Structure formats: structure tokens, C-alpha cells
Fold:
Amino acid sequence: MMLVELARRLADPARPGKSSLNQTRITFVSFDAEEPGLRGSRAYLKQRQDQLQSMPTFMLNIDSIYNDKHLQFLVSDLNGSIQLSNDLAEQYQGLAASAGISSKLTRMVFGGGATDAAELTRAGVQATTMLAMSTALVRVGLVYHIAKDTVDAIAPEAVRACLEVACRLVEKLDQVV
Structure:
């Protein structure tokens, strides 16, 4: 739903079906089969890797959005074995700060798994993951991947914070090109 809302915010009200962006093309992708080995993002890349490498391409992966107090940008992924774009993570952290949103940079701990940003990084795309969930090894109130992992476990403030960062990112990219 966050992608739908972001697309709505970027729509040009004067031109139905068109974006308000001037120089930037955004592709909204919801990958499937992340948990069984990032198979969805790998399949996507098989079909589009040449296209993604033919132009400057950046990925803001959004994953595990629960609590705005734990907004973070990953600088490593796949159990800490893949280095994500530190530059992008720092830029996104700066965009969050410019909106008054506290965040930090973090590494994926061994045993923490992976996000789809790992697969795109392997393909040469600059990527990071924005998440809003504690990454401590021992967590009180963890709901991720258990029966309590329901919509009511998502703080609306976390969704608002992530949307704000994503909107600021798109605006910045559209001005840079």
C-alpha cells in the first residue's frame, strides 16, 4: 500500500496517468519469494538486468516497516556478506533528518537474513534497504514472521516517515538528473 500511496503522491493531477516528475522514471516493484532465497528479485533481474544497467539506477528497498523509532538504512545485506551502497544510505539518512525524522545506518547481522537489495546489488544496482524494525538480536515485542505480524502491528507514524523519505528521495533525484 505504501507503493500505491507513493505513486498517488507523484501523480500529476493535470495529466491523468502521468507523473509530476520531469526527468526521472520510477518503477514500483513488489518482489515475491524473498524468504526462499530472493527468488522473486532474481527472476526480475534475469528479465531486466540489461535495462537496469543501461541508465543510472538506484533502489530504495522498503522492508519490515513497523516502528518509526527504529528507522534504519542498511549498509550491508545477506547476513552481512554483501556491502550495499553506503553513499545512498547516508543520502537517505540525510533526507530523513531534513524532515525531522531520526534514523541510523546499520549492517545486516549474521543470521538476520537478506532483503531484495542484496540481489540488485549483485547485479550492479546501487541499493539500500529502509526498514523500521529493531535489529537487536534479542527483541521485546517482535512480531516479524509470527502470528502477531498483522497490520495493527504497524505504527502509522512509521509508514508516514518512510513515505516522507521516499518522496524526498524522488524529488531530489528528479532535480539531479
Remarks:
- The CA atoms of residues 54 and 143 lie 40 Å apart.
- Strands lie at 58-65, 71-74, 76-77, 82-83, 104-106, 126-132.
